[in-house]
Amino acid sequence: xxxxxxxxxxxxxxxxxxxxxxxxxxxxxxxxxxxxxxxxxxxxxxxxxxxxxxxxxxxxxxxxxxxxxxxxxxxxxxxxxxxxxxxxxx
Length: 90
Description:
The protein has helices spanning 2-10, 23-57, 61-77. By secondary structure, it is mostly helical. It has one domain (21-83).
């Protein structure tokens, strides 16, 4: 039991808190990136609904969902404000 715990603790990656976000990045994120991600989420959802029969026939619904809906939604909701490093990187 001790060996398992030692292996688990030695293989975990420590998380370090980042400093405060750059004010310019926050402004650009709130005024540009979030609205663009919102529009992409809405447009991707509409496009997904239109292409769903084709995606279902080709058995590519999970891939289509990820590219058209989940990626932009993740940029909109889950990405920290001011973190533009991973924006549109899906």
